[in-house]
Amino acid sequence: MTDQKNLILAIVFSVGIILLFQVFYEMPRMREQERLREMQEASVQQQEAVTRPAPTAEGLPPDAGAIGQALDPGISLDPVTTREGALGATPRVAIDNGRVHGSIALRGGRIDDITLVDYRQSLAPNAPEVELLNPVGASSPYFAEFGWVAAGGATVPDGDTVWETTGDRLSASDSVDFRWDNGEGLIFHKRISLDTDFMFEVERSVENTSGEPVTLYPYGLLTRWPTPEIMGFFILHEGPIGVLDGTLKEIDYSGLRGAEPERFDSTGGWVGFTDKYWLGALIPDQAETIEATFRHTLRAGEDRYQIDYLGQGRVIAAGERITVTDRLFAGAKEVHLLDAYSERYGIPLFDRAVDFGWFYFLTKPIFHVLTWLYGILGNYGLAILALTLMVKLIFYPLANKSYRSMSQMKKLQPEMMKLRERFENDKQKMQQELMALYKREKVNPLAGCLPILVQIPVFFALYKVLFVSIEMRHAPFFGWIQDLSAPDPTSLFNLFGLLPFGVPGFLMIGVWPLLMGVTMFLQFKLNPQPADPIQAKVMMFLPLIFVFLFATFPAGLVIYWTWNNVLSIAQQWLIMKRMGVKMG
Fold it and tell me: Residues 221-232: what's their mean pLDDT?
């Protein structure tokens, strides 16, 4: 195998991976984003119309009976209204800790109204806050509920229970107490607290003044319907998730539909629903033995999903009061927060809510390096540039050896051409003479593949970080790049916005992809040129192919690749100059 074939094989291998990535991931992702945008617009119009009735959940059925059976919300036929209309249908306690806005419904005691102050639905000025939890009566109900199941015939609070409260506002400094008397000697209390971020603490207690012992089982549930809109890509899990007995469980919505509920016994752990950037998670006491269940029901033709857990039974003697404390995370999947909560409360593998993937061991360290650099530089784009420089320094000895070998091969090209001309009709002899030349000059023809191959793991790990981490969402660089996790929004075909018309998606060839193509072309010019004219032309067309491929990639990734090319060109040029190798 000749030196040129080795280099071409490495490049073709890289292009093949990126082409497969483009066909099976990027193109479907773009189509899905367009579909989601259209459906979101249609949903807004549908909410404004307020015409169709739909079923709503109403807490535990009164005959919950045998412990361990489904904690399945009941059904009623309230009309679907606007979100604001649903919020106004029941008295509420306001939530505001500076990062979370929302409210708690006194009817049912549900946490069902959460919007995120720091995150907007788009980059548009005055865009609304991201809505995470929604009340029954809105178009996409999604709520948390904590309650009790009675082993006997005791009356417990359900979705219709209207709680009493003396507070009117939940904040980081003010908790709210709720109370309900069942009229049969049981008094239920609930104290809800919220920290300065996204963690709710729900402390429930029951007083037994009935004169008879009562057995109650604590539960927590998260319910949402209909099937939420998801990206639907194999590299990202969206849907039911949990860590039970130290094992990560990821179940797709499609995997629950039409199937029996999936049950798991665990001590501690957590369960919830994960979206790309957001998480709702139930976190029981980590010493509690629970039965967690992932379930799907079909109500009035609508898919409903629920994740719940049932705790150990408590026998409450006459005159006794027992207390149970659980938690609810409802917010953005900020990695530093998930790590902090995991350490503070002993929550196992809580950071796995962020889908860092199979290469977790590489992806998460890259994320931490980026955020560390961001803390110093104040810009994630600059952090990517600094990360690229660090990677180049780490692989400097390897790349230096590779570029030195490539420079030697370039210097030997006249002799290699003579050998090819001399043994044009004897390929075997030509290969033998080439190998002898490499050995005599101490040149390794395989070394030219290494700079490309070592970049591939970093490339995919960085792509994963840009794709899944909330920290990169809407993170600006400079100029026209206002979101490093999105493609370059400019296009060569309307002169980068100077001409007043839009262009199709496949023609969105922005400034950064073009810069990347130019740097790739310059890098190829420094490399030894193939003797075969056809191979030489293919090599010259590769930068153009890469321009179109990278045009749909996140801008942060294109910036990384472009800057990496610039550093490689500088390193290779310096080595060639020292070795007296002619440029071009």
Answer: 88
